Structures are given as structure tokens and as C-alpha cells.
């Protein structure tokens, strides 16, 4: 069997590093690294490119180019700098591409990999939330395979039998519920960044921790799931599960519910996508159900977590609404983290931006290009800034 050729977009981030760690543990000849990209960490990128014998590497930040060139001096590794160079990396002939660039910068290179029909592992939420229609149309055209890396979607992908699609009643995304799972509205109103980023089960950055606390992360995941599994939003449910052991479930017509379980460790879904359709060894902790003893599940409270309803409304509205929702949320979370607005104001600001965005000309049509997605994103940011300013008074 020949090696699976691999390109990592976002090689120096947490998902990129975990992927390379798994590749390093695999037997020789199973994986062959073609290209690696990073934002501006030239020194680490060059070291990884040398270690994994990549053919090409690229930094998105043009000003990091000279440092990359210097760090690769004497090697046979080709390199480039700037957003075009990252797209060139995505367009190179690799069987499997990890799309792990955070934010809007990942859209164009991810689309480039989808367009040439690669197996694309999606770790970038924006690609499906903001450009889901575009990504899926291009994948249908090119024959690209989309592999979800988000733990919930990866779990559902494993339990979802596409041949029995007409017998699938619903899918269920689990949510830890975040630090405010049991909090009162009063506590949530008074909460500051320190309380909101204290995530109980997963270790994550500040932005995603706040998204977990508001459950906007789950809202965005509902949109992701609707695209990935081609289901209407009524067939995508959310279940609060504080232990984060059951990651996702699929309910079939016969009443059977299939779930995927595992310790909360991103290396399991990454390994699943990397080896798919086969399996591989990982150093992840094994799940000891007897030691755990019990698992708990709750329905999410729509009053305390309005972000879930906002995301459903944005998906139903379609067009640019999900891109506006995502961008407005980034601005509102940043405003909360720097003390401008309260915790409950995050959803209020996002709601206001999404409603205003729906009145923009052409808002009802799904973005037909990455440029159209970026326009909607810019509009969402502008509208959210206005809402934040008003709420901060
Ligand atoms: Mg997730």
C-alpha cells in the first residue's frame, strides 16, 4: 500500500501539532507529508518541515517569509509567503488535507483543497458555518470527501450510516453545558471573563471557552451539522452532557440510538479522520466506564442559552445570516473579554446584528464566492460593533 500523502493547513496550531504527533507515531511509510503552512511562526514551521521532510511550506504572513527562507537554508524544501502561497500549498497534490487554519483566513485554502477533490479534514468551523453551501457544492462537483474533526461531528460521522439515511430520525450533538450549566440568570448577568473561561472538561482558548459558556459554540455546531449531514435543523438536537464522554448520537427509525464515546481528547477525532476509513493507534487515555460509574444528560435551557435559538434562526434564514452570526459573535465575545459588555449582552449583540444583517441587500442569497462570504463577515462585524457600542452605554 502506498503512503497517504498529507498537507496540513495550520501546522503550528493545536490541531496541526496533534496531527503531526500522530503522524510521527505511525509506522514509516504510512504517511508522507507534502506541504505545511502556518500563520507567522517561521521557526517552528521550518523545524517541522525539516523533521517531516515536507516538499513545500508557506507562511500566510508575508513579513515572516525572509525568516522562513533563512530557517530552511541548505534544505531542499521549497517555500512561499503570503495568502497565495498558502493556497498553493492547499492546491498541491496531497490525498488528505487538514484544514485547521483559524478564522476567515482558512476559507480560500480550504476551498482550494475541496476543489481538487481531496479528502479534507475540517477543523475550521468557519468553512462550514459561513461557506457551507459553497463548500458542499464544490465537494459534490469535485468528489472531495469531507471528514469532520470537531469531536461531536466526528462522533456522528462514525455512527451515521449514509445507506440508511431515510431511516435516520435525528442526530444529537452533546454539549458540556460550560461553566454556567447550573447557574441562574442573575449569576450569568454578573459573570465576568474569569468565570466564563473556566471550562470544566476541555482545555481551550478564551474565545472558544466563552462560546462554550454561551453555548454559541453548540449553535455554530448545529449549523455545521446541518451542512455536513444534509439534515434540516429540526433533526439536529442538542443534549447537555457535563462529563463530555458521549460525543454524538444518531437515532434510527427502529428506536436504536448509536453513540461514540471516548475521553475528551481531540487526538481521537483527529486520528479517526487521519486514518479513515481505517483505524490507528493513539496514546489517548482509555475510557474506564466502571470508574466513571454514571453519565448525566439534560435538555439545554433556551432562556439562559439563547445562542442556540439564534443559530437555528440564522440557519433557517440562510443566505449570509450564518456568516453574520459568526462574525458578530467574534466581536461580541471580544467586547465581553475586554470588559465592554456583560455576559448576557453577547447574545443580545449577536441577535441585533443578525436582524440588521437580514435587511442588507442580497442577504437572502447564499454567498457564491469566498469574497461574498468575506463581505458578509465584514458586515456582521460592523453591525456587532454598533450593537456593542449601544449596549456598553
Ligand atoms: Mg465541538
Q: Output mean pLDDT.
A: 96
Low-confidence stretches are: none
Number of separate strands: 11
Which structural class fits the helix and strand makeup? alpha/beta
Question: What would you note in describing this structure?
Answer:
This protein has 393 residues and is of the alpha/beta class. The protein has a domain at 4-148: NAD(P)-binding Rossmann-like Domain (Rossmann fold), CATH 3.40.50. The protein has helices spanning 14-25, 42-51, 65-71, 83-91, 107-115, 125-142, 151-159, 185-190, 193-196, 206-214, 216-229, 267-275, 289-292, 307-317, 321-337, 343-357, 370-392, and strands spanning 4-9, 31-38, 56-59, 78-81, 96-99, 119-122, 145-148, 168-175, 236-240, 246-252, 257-261. The chain is globular. The model has no long low-confidence stretch (mean pLDDT 96). The site of magnesium ion (MG) has 4 residues, from α7.
